[in-house]
Amino acid sequence: MSLDDLDSPGGMVCVNHRRRETAVRCGKCERPICTKCMVQTPVGVRCRDCAQMRRLPQYEISPLLLARSALGGLAVSAIAWYLVSLVPFLRFFLSILVGAAVAEAMSRLAKRRDNRWLEIAAVVVVVAGLALAQLAVFAGSLSVYGPLFGQTPGYLISLAVPVIIAAVVAVVKLR
User: Fold this and answer.
1) Which of 38, 73, 141, 164 shows the smallest number of beta carbons within 10 Å?
2) Can you tell me the distance from the alpha carbon of 25 to that of 69, in angstroms, rounded to the nearest whole number?
3) Is the pTM of this model over 0.85?
4) What sections of the chain are H helices per DSSP?
């Protein structure tokens, strides 16, 4: 069937929907398409076959790349939180650096990809790194309840706020 067969006395009809009249043609193949079949692209209106919209490569991350960046980020996070625990009075300010360091490490290991899963992994890595650092700090402690359960609520809050700050910084830096 040729494009001339699609012309009706009242105008053109859609290639896919024979009962719908249209005045729009695909910008690439010139086939008439209705509003149901058209896809808006950066270069104009296209039919579904010609549009072939897919994600850009910088937004795709393989599970192996995600795991590699998460493990590297966890190592950076645990070391950074351990160093921050040596100067607890600067914990709030240094948490910004922890978040930036985790994000930079994860971004480099993920080949500078940008993905929602990478941001979620960064939050998990920041929290897990703090937990590992606290286990290392309290390893010599004789507390029966463990490193976090025997502590006062004020101490737990003094850990929660820096973790939130570091997680927000990591997510913002990964965007």
Assistant:
1) 141
2) 46
3) no
4) 48-51, 63-85, 91-109, 116-137, 146-149, 153-174
